[in-house]
Write a structure and sequence with these properties.
This protein is mainly alpha-helical. It has a domain of about 55 residues. The chain contains four helices and no strands. The radius of gyration is 41 Å and the shape is flat.
């Protein structure tokens, strides 16, 4: 560190003084951290943390093994698998899937027809716009309702 009583050479710009002081500060911090890491107390704390983590890992492994070996847990897992198998094989699930497929198919057909109508209205042979609105045939989406 520099001494406050020292006379500084005024030929150096103040930036180099700042750089030197920061470099010295960094070295001091590095040395302090090294000393702390190498101290007996730090080593003991590291050993304690390592031992604690190993004990925690052993306890977790033991708990998982006891859960896996528990007959009630095994029975519960088997029941869950059977229930999932039944759901996959049920008629309701099959019917729902068929209904969903039919609905999507109808939607695809309607979208294809709509796209075809839009393409036919975009042909270059259509007359220029004269200011009056003309549209094609109206398609009712809900044929059961008479009122609009």
């Amino acid at each position: 560190m520099s001494q406050p009583d020292e006379k500084k050479d005024n030929t150096q710009p103040p930036q180099s003084d700042l750089g030197n002081e920061l470099r010295e500060l960094g070295q001091q911090i590095e040395q302090a951290l090294r000393n702390a890491m190498e101290s007996d107390r730090a080593r003991q704390m590291q050993k304690d943390v390592t031992a604690g983590m190993m004990e925690l890992g052993n306890q977790l492994q033991s708990a998982i093994k006891s859960i896996q070996d528990n007959p009630r847990i095994q029975d519960l897992a088997e029941r869950g698998e059977e229930a999932m198998h039944k759901v996959r094989q049920s008629q309701a699930a099959h019917d729902f899937q068929e209904t969903l497929v039919r609905g999507i198919s109808q939607l695809n057909d309607q979208l294809a027809a709509f796209a075809a109508r839009m393409r036919s209205n975009e042909t270059p042979s259509t007359p220029p716009d004269t200011g009056s609105a003309t549209t094609g045939e109206t398609t009712r989406l809900d044929p059961d309702k008479d009122n609009w």
